Write the structure tokens for this entry.
Amino acid sequence: MKSSSLLPRLLLIAALFFSISSCSENLDSSGACPLLCPPVGGDVQNTTIDAIVVDTTVQSLSGLGTEPVLLLANRGDTLDTRVVVRFDSLPQTFLPAGDTTQAIVQVDSAYLALMIDTLSIKGEAPVTIEAYDVDTTANDTSTAAVLALFRPDRFISSQTFARADLTDTLKYFISNDVVLSKIQNKLPLRIGLRATGTESSQIRISSTESGFPPLMHFRATPDTTTKPLTVTLLSKTPVGQAIAAANLSDYTVIAKAPPQASPTILAVGGLPPRRVYFRFDIPAKIIDSSTVVRATLLLNQIQNSSLDPTDTVRVLPQVVLAGRVVTDPQKAAQIIANISADTLTLRPGDAGLVNVELARAVTLWHLQKPDTLPRAIVLKPVIEGGTPLEIRFSSSEDVVAALRPRLRISYTRQVPLGLP
């Protein structure tokens, strides 16, 4: 579909979202939104149908480096993730107090300023963070190439933190000599961080996408009256790809992640992050000729005890905006919009019935033709790429029919027409 025809359609759908969101969900409400939220008349009928024609797990295609947090984890043989920050442009001069601009010939007190999500920290024992020089001409997205650089000859520095030292803003000191060498040789400074220690640990660091990116500070002189220099993140590669380069200014590298669910199980979250795509076939007599007062997707959650089973994952239902020309669920699952202010708070270790409310999505489908707005939704984690936890559900391929996804709809056949 050409962008010229796609834009008006998306604008129309966005307007519908706004109108529907402004309507009350109270069935006894006044006629505040008489057209989109008509008063209910007659008997409300309830039906549970096998309306899912496609349900599948797909990868998130947001891209490397688009995660809202950077995950630094050392969880034994279960989880190992590293963090890369890139400073591809380093200052060459500084302004001493009361003097003229001078070339940088020394570096003092160099450190990274990292914003930490203290509520998500795992582990009570001290954690050691090691820094490595991960500058390379290899493919920017090659995980293997980056992981190979976490070796002794690329070592920069290390620092050990007690649990009490892991505060909101973490100062991680790095080698002054390494920073100076990069400046003098006009080379990029790309740092890979790795967590080690006698016990497992996990830390979330704010990324560029969160608005609080890592920064580097240092002095070009021991004179404390001279203002320290601040260096912001920058990646100059891939060359000619500005968006990809911006994303790669900081990113998480996955060395090891918990095993993912089998292809016959629907999975949300994990590393690399995944989503679930559902497409429905709802009878026309319900979606076109009735007023739907409630629609609920019924899912059977499957227990996943591989990592932190009692932790919570917030899952968000989204409506798919891709038209019929996008037939690949993988691609369609990336063109989405929010349909609810409420999120599902789920624990990986739980099992049983999960209800996903879809009334707003069904209202949109009633107002739009299927080739304009497909009858499809996506379930995705709120923090995508920032958690290793994976929520699992039974799919339409489950051998037990009662565990397969179903759609429960409450509707009335009396549909008010026109405006009062």
